[in-house]
Write a structure and sequence with these properties.
This protein has a 4-stranded antiparallel sheet. A 3-stranded antiparallel sheet has the order 2-7-6, with no helix packed on it. The protein has one domain (3-134). It is globular. 17% of the residues are buried. Helices cover 30% and strands 33% of the residues. It is an alpha+beta fold.
């Protein structure tokens, strides 16, 4: 569902008016890896604004929110990384083509709900486990040997 974000001359000011801003998924298929194994498609979450130009509605790219592959979207550490990317990119405002886009808390909430339908948000326990596993990799110098 499109949401309205206020636009203005600079990123610090909110002005009346606005554009419908929403998250959109772009799916890109990948060929097999070097061993011939099929790989899952890449899903890119992007933030776009719906604008009218020359009497037609156009999508204006605002920013890339995150990327996940279909075959890894259920892995906790992948979801944690994806949602950290999304959070950092939704934290501020954006200037595109002389137009400023400010993501308000209400808009951010709706965008996050739309993204969570495809990539569920990790729980605090899953975040803690992914962080612990990441720290273990750094302290031991790599993943455990496969037996």
């Amino acid at each position: 569902m499109p949401t309205t974000v206020h636009t203005g001359g600079d990123l610090s000011a909110l002005h009346a008016g606005g554009h419908a801003v929403y998250a959109r998924w772009k799916r890109r298929t990948r060929g097999p890896d070097r061993w011939g194994k099929e790989r899952g498609a890449v899903l890119d979450a992007v933030l776009v604004a719906s604008e009218r130009a020359d009497g037609r509605v156009r999508q204006r790219f605002i920013c890339h929110l995150g990327r996940v592959t279909e075959d890894e979207a259920d892995r906790d550490h992948i979801r944690v990384r994806f949602w950290r990317d999304v959070a950092s990119r939704l934290a501020g405002g954006y200037a595109v083509g002389g137009q400023a886009y400010i993501v308000t808390p209400e808009v951010r909430s709706r965008i996050e709900q739309a993204l969570a339908a495809r990539v569920p948000k990790p729980t605090p326990e899953e975040i803690a486990a992914a962080d612990a596993a990441g720290r273990a990799l750094w302290t031991t110098g790599g993943p455990p040997p496969v037996m």
